Amino acid sequence: MQNGTWLRAQHYRDMAASFRRLAETEPLASLRRHLRRLAAQHDEVATGLEAPQSDEQRISGKEKRRR
Predict the structure, then answer these.
(1) What pLDDT digit, counting tens, does each position of 44-62 carry?
(2) What total of structural domains would you count in the chain?
(3) Number of alpha carbons in the 13 Å side-chain half-sphere of residue 60
(4) What is the DSSP string of the chain?
(5) Could you list the residue range(s) of the whole structural domain that residue 49 is in?
(6) pLDDT given at position 2
């Protein structure tokens, strides 16, 4: 994993942790659920960034960014 990718993944993990901390103190159940969903989504993005990509995935990702 490249350093920039690792930093982005770490940023998403940090944001997920922040959302979880906010959810712990949130009195409104609906907002608590939303914050937990945001945390889970940020964890998923971090996991996706950390996962090794095949050459085909890297090439298709570059093509998508060019569009």
Answers:
(1) 999 999 987 654 555 555 5
(2) 1
(3) 5
(4) --HHHHHHHHHHHHHHHHHHHHHHH---HHHHHHHHHHHHHHHHHHHHHHS---HHHHHHHHHHHH-
(5) 3-66
(6) 81
